[in-house]
Write a structure and sequence with these properties.
Blueprint: E1 14-16, E2 22-24, H1 43-76, H2 82-110, H3 112-132, H4 136-161, H5 170-199, H6 201-206, H7 208-222, H8 237-260, H9 265-287, H10 301-317, H11 320-330, H12 336-343, H13 345-364, H14 366-387, H15 394-422, H16 429-454, H17 464-484
Antiparallel strand pairs: 1-2
Helix pairs in contact: 1-2, 1-4, 1-5, 1-7, 1-11, 2-3, 2-4, 2-8, 2-16, 3-4, 3-7, 4-16, 5-12, 5-13, 5-15, 8-9, 8-16, 10-15, 10-16, 10-17, 11-12, 13-14, 13-15, 14-15, 14-17, 16-17
């Protein structure tokens, strides 16, 4: 990228709210001196960012906490396999990826605040259903409902906040909002381990219900509805169906292929159905007047390059947090509390990284930081490939890789999202963020499927070769991600 590139978002001189008030955030609240080009942010914007970020933390907490609880969930349903339990994780990622475009479009059509609040209510309901599930498959279905709720919360939360920030502070706002995910991940391992030790895995889900209800009430007071274009009324039903089938079929072929045989008629048939659905989705999205996922945004180089890197990084960045608990528990005999505390260093590093580098991204160059972050993730995976064996010392062998991985993630993924948003007008914020998040969750679903396809043995030293295979797969995808970040983007263009 050229040196003069900076992450700049379109100007927002006024935001029209549902109460009919036109509030200028570039007047008295945003006065700046001749020497200070950083505009002040109104208190309302910070309050909105706080509530929106808490919604993101809620979704992230449940994702990470589930990873910690997988072993306990498997023991809670006698006779089920690790893959059966793993479907709950995969279904969440599949559902989130499938529903994100739909919820992003609904947010732009009927109101971002309404969709955000609906997501919180459904999240509370899904938490209760998950905690009360009598079988693993009903638990997995409850996780599908939770995926829909999370898909409603994520795109609407950022889209509610960004118009309230002046353009010079939007990169920082995106960075802080993005930090909510790692913050949730930092809290979740130790919190989930504590909850597991006193109340079991069902309580891990149940605690989310009152939190979601409190956030619903907070949204009533601290979030403003943003008026949207009422002329855009058509929903892309065909696109929604085709996209869902494509993701579900690909994941099913990967996960079940191990049981069916990857050359079997069933596996090939499911894969072919997924490929057909994907082609149908792409063709429909390019032809539909109001597609569920605006693939035309990918014509802007900054958008497609960041999403390519986002996809490749996303394969490992979510699913590696499944791998570590499995092996810490079953190979190295860590306790549940030990696993929770041991994994915390990664999200803490990610959170710290986001806070620091989101503030300097515009001066240093965000793409340079993204490249460095990807390289740190490569180093982290390589470190663990070399250092880990049947016996490990946590601080010497395991912790450095976890911390480096978190640090690299915090330097790459959130800034990639900010770069993508910088290439579009404000009216496309919801669609662009929805596209970015959809790609990330779709890649997470694929990564999760690959983990459970490779992980045939989880107990003892016999599992170590499978651990190496998984890390090797992650290493390849992360190297490809790093290489993709060297594709020239050129000058910022929103045309």
């Amino acid at each position: 990228m050229r040196r003069q590139f900076s992450v700049v978002l379109s100007a927002v001189p006024r935001v029209q709210l549902a109460d009919g008030a036109n509030r200028s955030y570039l007047k008295s609240e945003t006065l700046k001196s001749a020497d200070d080009k950083t505009e002040a942010v109104p208190a309302r914007a910070w309050r909105a960012l706080f509530v929106a970020s808490l919604g993101t933390i809620l979704v992230g907490f449940n994702t990470t906490a589930t990873n910690i609880a997988l072993d306990d969930i498997q023991r809670g349903f006698p006779g089920v396999s690790a893959a059966d339990v793993g479907w709950g994780v995969a279904i969440f990622f599949i559902g989130t990826a499938a529903f994100l475009p739909l919820c992003g479009r609904l947010a732009d059509k009927i109101g971002r605040k309404k969709i955000f609040q609906m997501g919180l209510l459904l999240f509370a309901l899904s938490a209760v259903f998950s905690a009360a599930s009598p079988s693993v498959w009903l638990l997995n279905l409850s996780r599908l409902l939770q995926a829909f709720a999370g898909a409603a919360i994520l795109p609407s939360s950022l889209a509610l906040v960004l118009p309230l920030f002046p353009e010079s502070r939007r990169t920082a706002a995106v960075g802080l909002w993005s930090a909510a995910g790692p913050l949730a991940a930092a809290i979740a391992p130790s919190a989930a381990a504590f909850i597991l030790s006193i109340g079991g895995w069902r309580m891990v889900y149940l605690v989310s219900a009152p939190v979601a209800l409190l956030l619903f009430i907070s949204a009533l007071f601290f979030l403003d509805e943003v008026l949207i274009d009422k002329n855009r009324q058509r929903l892309d039903i065909l696109g929604a169906a085709a996209g869902t089938i494509a993701i579900a079929a690909v994941v099913t072929a990967i996960m079940q292929g191990r049981l069916w045989g990857y050359s079997s008629v069933a596996t090939v048939g499911v894969a072919a159905m997924g490929a057909f659905a994907l082609v149908l989705f792409i063709v429909n999205s390019l032809r539909h007047p109001e597609p569920l996922l605006n693939l035309k945004l990918l014509r802007r180089r900054g958008v497609w390059v960041t999403n390519l890197a986002n996809f490749l990084i996303g394969i490992s960045s979510q699913s590696i947090w499944l791998v570590w608990p499995f092996f810490m528990k079953n190979v190295w005999d860590y306790s549940t509390v030990g696993i929770g505390l041991g994994l915390t260093v990664g999200p803490v590093a990610a959170f710290t990284s986001i806070i620091i580098f989101s503030r300097v991204a515009d001066r240093v160059g965000p793409i340079r930081l993204c490249r460095l972050g990807a390289c740190l993730q490569i180093l982290a995976i390589s470190w663990q490939l070399v250092r880990l064996g049947s016996d490990v010392n946590y601080w010497a062998d395991l912790a450095p890789g976890i911390m480096l991985f978190g640090l690299g993630w915090g330097m790459s993924v959130p800034l990639l999202n900010g770069i993508a948003l910088a290439w579009v007008e404000e009216s496309f914020f919801g669609e662009t963020n929805g596209l970015f998040s959809t790609v990330r969750y779709a890649s997470a679903a694929i990564g999760t499927a690959a983990v459970f396809a490779i992980l045939t043995t989880t107990v003892g030293e016999l599992a170590l070769p499978y651990y190496d295979r998984i890390l090797g797969f992650f290493l390849v995808t992360t190297v490809l991600a790093a290489l993709s970040l060297w594709i020239p983007i050129g000058k910022l263009s929103k045309k």
